[in-house]
Amino acid sequence: MIRNTSRPFTHIDTWVFDLDNTLYPHHVNLWHQVDARIGEFVSAFLDVSADEARRIQKDYYRRYGTTMRGMMTEHGVHADDYLAYVHKIDHSPLQPNPDMGAAIAKLPGRKLILTNGSTDHADKVLQRLGIGAHFEAVFDIIAAELEPKPAPQTYQKFLRDHGVNPLMSAMFEDLARNLVVPHQLGMTTVLVVPDGTKEVVREDWELEGRDAAHVDHVTDDLTGFLEKLTTS
Q1: How far apart are CA 66 and CA 148, in angstroms?
Q2: Where are the alpha helices (H) located in the chain, listed in sequence order?
Q3: Fewer C-beta within 10 Å: the chain N or C terminus?
Q4: pTM for the complete prediction?
């Protein structure tokens, strides 16, 4: 599945990728482990039932961009404690992806990661995938001063910190709402959606937006999509 609009890739010199559910398939459901750890953290910190923690978790995720931001704002949670707990997961379901690595390596210009997760988590994911050497840097939630995507200031800080011209950049994301600001800034946007033949663990709203005006391209096969960019 590929949908294209008018913004091409011929002028792109910087390639920006989200991490979770973008650089590895949605159906790996690695994020499902993080999701469960977040629920445990919320339940323990607020001393509420698992069901109530789940409600709070998803409410904050939708309203604040991440549950962590909501927990910090509403309850004074320390980011370091939260990140250390929720990213303590088993990364072994991730398998090396040399085809993706080769496709990324062929892209002309710089490659960067912009994630709401931590650098530690990103490093483990990239190591398992075997593609870390292709990326110049990771801009994580700490670099974003704990303001997650889709906050406009997060993208603006990322662009400033790494000297990126948005008009010559492409952004790959699995959440359509996280592509609104990049598109407004002039970036070419790509929404990476789940393989329709595989079961994924996602909220309904997370899977929306593939027909939105701020989404220039849609693919359910990132490796294949990238390969076509360097062979066409």
Answers
A1: 7
A2: 30-46, 50-64, 67-75, 79-86, 98-106, 119-129, 152-162, 180-185, 222-231
A3: C
A4: 0.88
